[in-house]
Amino acid sequence: MDPEDGGDPEEIVQEMEGRLIERESEWVVKYTEKPGTPDEVKTTVKAGEDEVTIIRQGMIAYRQRYHPGETTICVVETPGGTSEMEVHTLAYRREREEAQGRIQFSFRLTMAGEPMGRYQLLIQWTEVPA
Q1: Residue-by-residue pLDDT tens, the chain, 130 positions
Q2: Alpha carbons 49 and 51: distance in angstroms, whole number
Q3: Cross-strand pairs, 32
Q4: DSSP summary character for residue 5
Q5: pTM of the model
Q6: pLDDT value for 9
Q7: What is the pLDDT, as a whole number, of residue 16?
Q8: Phi-psi region of 49 (alpha: psi -120 to 50; beta: other; left: phi over 0)
Q9: Nearest in space to 61 (alpha carbons), one of 48, 73, 74
Q10: CA-to-CA distance for 78 and 25, rounded, in angstroms?
């Protein structure tokens, strides 16, 4: 969350191995959180030139598109049922040079009609030679 939304900023850092697939104008980053556990989540990040799509498969599953200046809606599936996630994307950028890259975007999140706050996601990677 962001201090301007009335809360203290919270930072969650995860480090894991993944795969980068480069297509014409899209970078696809795939990784698995908590592999081999009941909480395993497979994530695919499709970063285009002007928008990013996150696909998560696991206990919580959704496909959400983030495009600056737009509000998009998706259905989130959880063990307790489904709910709508509404996202207003504030900013997005991607950068890649030599053997590293980053995808960064920020958004305001509303779940089931309740404002949840402002979030920022940063995905960074370092490519390891094969």
Answers
A1: 444 445 566 777 888 889 999 998 999 999 999 999 989 999 999 999 999 999 999 999 999 999 999 999 999 999 999 999 999 999 999 999 988 999 999 999 999 889 999 999 999 999 887 7
A2: 6
A3: 42
A4: G
A5: 0.86
A6: 67
A7: 87
A8: alpha
A9: 74
A10: 32
Q: Which helix (H) or strand (E) holds 8?
A: none
**Dist CA 35 CA 122 (whole Å):** 21
Q: 96, 93, 76, 98: which is closest to 85 by C-alpha?
A: 76
| Residues shown for the chain | 130
**Of residues 129, 128, 130, the one with CA closest to residue 17:** 128
Amino acid at 100: Q
Q: Where are the alpha helices (DSSP H) in the chain?
A: none
State the amino acid at position 35 in one-letter form. Answer: P
Tokens representing residue 27 in the block: 């970078």
